[in-house]
Amino acid sequence: MRTKHSLYKKMLKRGGKLLALSAIMVATSCDYLDVAPPVRATLPDAMKDKNAAISWLQSCYEPLAMQSPSSHTRYESSTDEFVLPQLWGYGSQLISWNQMSAGGSDINNNTDRAQNRWYDCYGYIGHLHLFLSQLDALQPLNVTEEDRVRFKAEAKFVKAYLHFLLLELYGPIPIMDKQLPRDTPASEFPGRSHFDYCVDYIVGLLDEAAKELPSTYALDDTYNRGNAVICKALKARLLLYAASPLWNGSFPYPNWRNTNYETPGYGKELVSTKYDPKKWERALTACKEALEFAEKEGGRKLMDVETAMKMAEDQGVPLPSVPGVSADTPEGKDFLQHVLLMRYITASDETMGNKEMIWSTPDHDSNYAVQLPRRCYLRSNGQWWNGWSGIAPTLYSIEHFYTKDGVLPDKDKNFTPKEEWLKSAEIPGRGDIINLNVDREPRFYATFSFDGDEYGSLIRNGQPLTVRLRDKDQQGYNPEQANRDLCQTGFLSKKIVPPNIKFTDGGDNVGKWYPFPVIRLAELYLDVAECYEELGDTPNALKYLNVIRNRAGVRSLTTADITSDMPLREWVHNERFIELWFEGQRYYDVRRWMTAPKYLGAEREGLNSYEGRLYNPTFEQFNQRVKINQPFTWDNRMYLMPVRQNELYSNPQLVQAPGY
Prior knowledge:
By secondary structure, this protein is mainly alpha-helical. The chain has 23 helices and 12 strands. The chain has a two-stranded antiparallel sheet. Helix 10 (228-243) packs antiparallel against helix 11. The longest helix has 26 residues, at 145-170. It starts with a helix and ends in a 10-residue tail after the last helix.
């Protein structure tokens, strides 16, 4: 019997092998310009019929899997949300330590191909150009005119997405709108275009594609390919970025210009040096249009408690255990249901009723071990199923999720005073729980785990796993068991880990595999709220913020909550931090807001789970605020990634990012 899960996995599967076509891809993906390759005998086979054409087109979606926003090795993980063990030394860590250059000896030469976004994206853009030329030239069998229209629209969408991936990381980029002949002289290579010109180009592609693509998903083999909802949502994100300070008059290197290449209408300028409020108006229009279209024509909706509880019932998952909360009261039961709801949003799929996803990546299942604690389950042969304890949330993260009253802990008059946060909450039978981990909002318990917390209800062959970070024989510090995979901060992450995950003698349950959100509906609500805040419309900003807060089981904000030490902009930014934690957004948000020096240049802090090198520490020894001993730093050049130096040698039109 085929399960819903296996059906979904099949729907996400790409046309991956492409035997004859793979040789062409190798030839085109290494050149920055990806000029047209010589005609090969394999091309007719790659476009011989409709199935072959679909396989080729599906292969162009590969960057979606390669750019999984949750992967701990990639750019998006170099934020203040969490830290990794220093000994891992991944590319994401090199970025957060400001150890990248344009020479190719560091991040750009990482063995993980997903780091090399410049080469990968331009390679696939060339791949798309070749596809479009051969679609018309070879006339594949059984491809109708309707098919042809959709294929071309999808190609426009993917080309827009690839340019977007480049733009958000490198800033102004060369626009590759067509194939260039192989004999194109270097003097005619395109250089970087002005940021606003790039934005308009991508918006144009997305608008054109949206007109020809279906409104939303079909639960068949076309699932997760381009549709009009994704086009509009990506356009909304792009215009939100373009309206933000980094690209709206505050770029830290205003004199950065092209040397030779000129953008039509902009000359040699690359960035806007004056603030333009109309960019926020444009972004608001796009964000509202995307949200309304997603909910009406796209059938998207925020996940609710009823849907989540049906998932839990189907999977046999009980209500979670939260310190100080009882399921025996209506209020307690509602709270615990919201905790489970917030876990299922990023640990379920559409076949289970999750219609919040607008676009998702299939490259997700390999990340669970990174988050899971060590010693998940002791098998009958005496061997443990172990996680890596790698995603260690910082104290900043812990302290910036709200209390049960929907306020930051240090601003909540009803919450425990800060000087007592790391003392015992004195919950009967739970002496290992500190005050900081009690009386928090549902998203806190859905996202984080801590000493004394129940990580999952079923992990140990159907029994719960209670985290023991002060016990060297359980999840605590013990380099004799794992010299690298040790929790760095005293906190672990639960996000994306399914509530029904279970380890047995035979292995782990297959139901753990789910796609990861690239864009989900909640983001659009937060986008609209941010636009309204920037345009000075407080009532509407609160309206859209409160939709997300209420869904999470958090009370509504009112104008009385907006104060000089917690202005509306901070509410908007922090709500985004909480709701989208570990979804790859923070990397770009703090850069576009130009708050990166404040957050990414600061020390990272945690509890004393690792830095003290203590076996079986006492409660007091463990629950101390300590600095994570890693060289986190910030330099303004880090607002953009560099391109390799050899690109500058081969393309005289191209200029390097500032500071490299």
